[in-house]
Amino acid sequence: MPVERFLEYLVSERRASPLTVEAYRSDLRQFAAFLEGMGAGPPGRATSKMVRSWMMELMQAGVGPRSVNRKLSALRAYYRFARKVGGAGPDPTALVEAPKVPQRLPEFVGEPQMRELLDGMAWPEGFAGMRDRLLMELLYGTGMRLAELTGLGPGDVDLRRATVRVLGKRRKERIIPLAQPLVKLLGEYLAQREAVAPGGDGPLLVGPDGRGVPRRTIQTLVTHYLSAVTTQRKRSPHVLRHTFATHLLEHGADLNAVKELLGHANLAATQVYTHNTVDKLKRAHRQAHPRGGGEDHRDQSNDL
Asked: Which fold has domain 3-85?
């Protein structure tokens, strides 16, 4: 079954994002090239042994288990679709086990560092400086993904209701509330944006020339500003998404509410953030409880 037909299905039926479609196209082409190199024919003739061999080759080349799992997921989706439309043989991925992925806790920036960044940063002068501050405030204040940020237009912002409409994965729409300081900043930015990009069309974030800010530029800006307040290894837009979720949970937010704000399809994806908050509680317990394993505590009952 042609790969392009499957990719068209992802767009029309699954409403997959352009980034997802490109990732699937790349993975499937890579697998097809592997089969061709083996002289094994097209993907329709692949066997479980061939899929395992491909995965082994990837891992020996240094591809991490998470990436291998993603590629295997692309194959599984392709073969499921092939069987669904008919004419396909046995699924060669059915008996293939995904490599185990070591659990990694999401990296996030501490609250003192975020306060230093947003309240103490000397932002560049002019429109570009306001735009830079806004993109940092939006990522931290809403937890939206980078692709969702670049997809925003001025019409997605409702200053009166203090909300922003976001188009997430599989084109699922959600509404995210905005804190009043962010509403104020957005109002000031939109007024200045009108001078460089009149009419309200196009992306929300633009440069002084009125053109949209490329994805790569946003990544570079986020890395630059986070580098001013933290030395942690990861300093990306997604780290600000992790920071948004972690800080909400640390301040008592309901897990289901955080799930809806992040646009997760299921609660399991959100629960990973609870590990950070549980670790913080454990540290507090060790340090403060008389039998927590921390410093000795004298009887302070007379001080109360």
From this structure: DNA polymerase; domain 1 (1.10.150)
